Amino acid sequence: MTRHRRMVVAGCVGALLATASGTAYAMDNLPPEQPLVQDLQSEQEPCATADETPYVSQVPRLSAKLYDPEADNQPSEYSSVTAEFEAWWTDTAGAEQRRTYTSITLSSGSNFYWRMPDDVPANTVVSWRVRADDGKATSPWSDEGEGSVCSFVVDDVSPEKATISSPEYPEDVLWVDGVGVYGTFTMDSPSDDVVSYRYNFTGGPYGTAEAESPGAAATLSYLPLMDGPNTLTVRAIDRSGRSSGESRYRFYVKSGRAPVARWKLDDPAGSRTAAAETGTAASAGTGVTFGGSAPSGTGASATASFDGSGHGFLTTGAPAVDIRKSFAASAWVRPAETGRAMTVVSQDADGKPGFTLGLRSGDGGPAWSFAIGGEQVSGGAPETGEWAHLLGLYDAETGRSHLYVNGAEVGVPAEVSPAEAPGAFQVGRARGAAGYRDRWHGDIGDVQVHDRVVVPDEVAELALRKPKLLGHWSMSDAVDGATPEQSGGAPLRLGPGASVYRIPEGSCLPEADPDCEPVPLPLVGEGHLSLDGETGYAATDGPVVDTADSFTLGVVVRLAESAPAHPMTVLSQAGEHTDAFKVRYEPSTRTWQLVMPVKDEAGAPEKVVSWVKGADGGVGQGHRLAVVYDDGADTIKLYLDGQTNTDATTTLSDGWHSEGALQIGRAKAGDGWGEYLHGDVDEVQAYAGALRSGVGGLGWESEPCLC
Description:
With 707 residues, the chain is an all-beta fold. It has 2 helices and 55 strands.
């Protein structure tokens, strides 16, 4: 059917056009559809009028989406319309002003626009409407019937700058308390059309605070997370979206104030009272023994042991803190069992505890717990005989409770409303309806109570176990078949096939003499350990790291071959039947691996993490490897040249203690040794404790030293 044929037949009113298939189409023209209010905008503001009239910051572009029914056209035909806009307002003389505009022709369903003329006045209500025209008929106006007129007001004046005030953090006062203490900041502008304030604190947070009504002030709450000078920057925003100039408010934040109560629990053995660094001294039941060991790397010198009986407790006879306000309670703990509920600290209310921090046991196994206001946050995995740092926090500003284990938040924060707890502060037990219950069995140290929010960086600092350097072997020299430890500790004794390489005496260096024959340089410093891959190794006389606890090891290694024929181990420390750990190169997968069996048995299941990297082939400066076992977090990580990834990280719930010597260049193989390394080794370092940031946080990118 040709276009000419359609046009001829269309001239007959009421005729039918038969297609090749026999289908018939009515050819009467239908008018375009009435524009819908939801399809109309003044600039980017939706159509509204009366009290909802939007304010815009400049003469706007109006937009409308228009439709023409397709039933009056053949499916292959093009349905097009134009938009007819009309706007009006009353000028200052009381006369009505009208403007009209007809758009270009576009297809049905398009957006049509009208950039309004520049003579549209400011601060005047301008109304408008639109209709569609298909060249034969027009739609109803958009304000007819159930439609609505659209309005806008042009605001061409920006608001005045905001003033800022804070009763807790007055401007330019040196110094004001402090980290973990909320402050309120009120922002106000003299302009009566301001609806919000955009704000930004140094380092965050930033956002928008809404005024309760146009022209009103807005107040926001802010929790300082670090001490030092801080600046609040504010811009007032009016209802048209115009911004004021920038207002700056400078204030100075103190470091977080000390705990309101602290018991280090490092009292002499035989004491019947726990001295308070701050707060009230606590009397001890006969089931408490002072003088116990402390978690390494914490600065604590001793702890108290609780026997889990009715006599194992400390009590102050007075409350330590008002739990209806923000507070935190924390302690180092080591449970002697995990199969029942046990309380580390609590504070008495009427026949029950106002809060408890401790251990709960359920169908999912034991978990650390902080309970307050009838709600409980739990998480983490307590292990018998393992130290953990616990901190329970109630933030009265947010109404939420939080639980931190070893410096990291666990569980889901709970919405709580604590009741008053005016009774005594307890260590090692919790109040029940018929007396005290859930008594602690194990060790507790350094109990602290704060009357403020303890912020995340402070939590991490409280839980920090600073690694202790156990040994550093620089491999620069060998004396009597051993290479010394830098601090005078146990040396590494060299086996057959192992030697320390140093630049030969009398050798010249290219930078001093361009014509000289270059000689190989040591990996680091003045020398490195060379191993022949057959019998070569070095070892200490006994174990260096406690593999049952957190430890870190670092080494620089270069393989002599580009395609080794078998796995080669650079570091290991053995138990009776297998290695507690080994770091090796696996040529079949071209990976460096950290291998840690889950128990001291031949053929025991192994935890393996790896890094893909080709062998060195005796060239280059080698690679810096580090092993980190974090017993508190139950993770092992392998770092290569300061980096780690998901393939190089996995979980290990329990390391086991090994009594074997630290081996350089070989691993246990049945009743003997194997996996001898062919290559060079340098800068072996060993730490008690987990270096949380790994090698990257200790300068290994530029220096091969973990210290």
